[in-house]
Write a structure and sequence with these properties.
By secondary structure, the chain is mostly helical. It has helices at residues 2-22, 45-65, 69-89, 98-119, 122-142; strands at 92-93, 96-97.
């Protein structure tokens, strides 16, 4: 019995001394080295479209539907800037010239929206917004992404923003 107790004590002491060596190595963070220098921000086309275009398209539609013409004008300017930013960041996508794709798909509807907003013509706004939305979907079809279907918003995804004019 005494021998067993001594063996157990020796074994426990050995484990205590070897413990740190036997412990598993700390797992690497799935997010990389937290002390590393940040990499340049280089989002892909889908991320840019989701960040810059889709929410702005919705905001233009919601503001125009509410006939909040100053907000519609601002949102349209932001939408145009989104297209310009993407055109510079991704000048070619899948071998296609992005600025030319955008211009062919949405150039004319954006111009018509601008006029409708400036003149505060609700019916023309709705027509131009429909053309803009159709242009988005035509571009998606051209680039083999016809499964991405854009539509006029029927509810606001922005519960913290008022679209009714003040």
């Amino acid at each position: 019995m005494r021998r067993l107790r001594c063996t157990l004590i020796a074994f426990t002491a050995a484990l205590l001394m070897l413990g740190p060596a036997l412990a598993p190595a700390p797992a690497e963070s799935p997010f990389g080295d937290p002390n590393a220098e940040p990499a340049p921000f280089n989002p892909q086309m889908a991320a840019l479209m989701n960040m810059l275009i889709q929410p702005r398209h919705a905001k233009v539609g919601l503001a125009g539907e509410a006939e909040n013409w100053p907000l519609a004008a601002y949102s349209l300017k932001e939408l145009r800037q989104g297209f310009a930013v993407i055109s510079r960041a991704v000048p070619r996508w899948k071998g296609l010239p992005v600025p030319e794709l955008f211009d062919a798909a949405v150039g004319q509807p954006l111009t018509r929206l601008d006029y409708a907003i400036k003149l505060k013509f609700s019916r023309q706004f709705k027509e131009a917004y429909g053309q803009l939305t159709a242009g988005c979907n035509a571009c998606h079809a051209t680039t083999d992404h016809s499964f991405i279907v854009i539509k006029a918003p029927n509810t606001s995804a922005f519960p913290n923003q008022e679209f009714e004019p003040k």
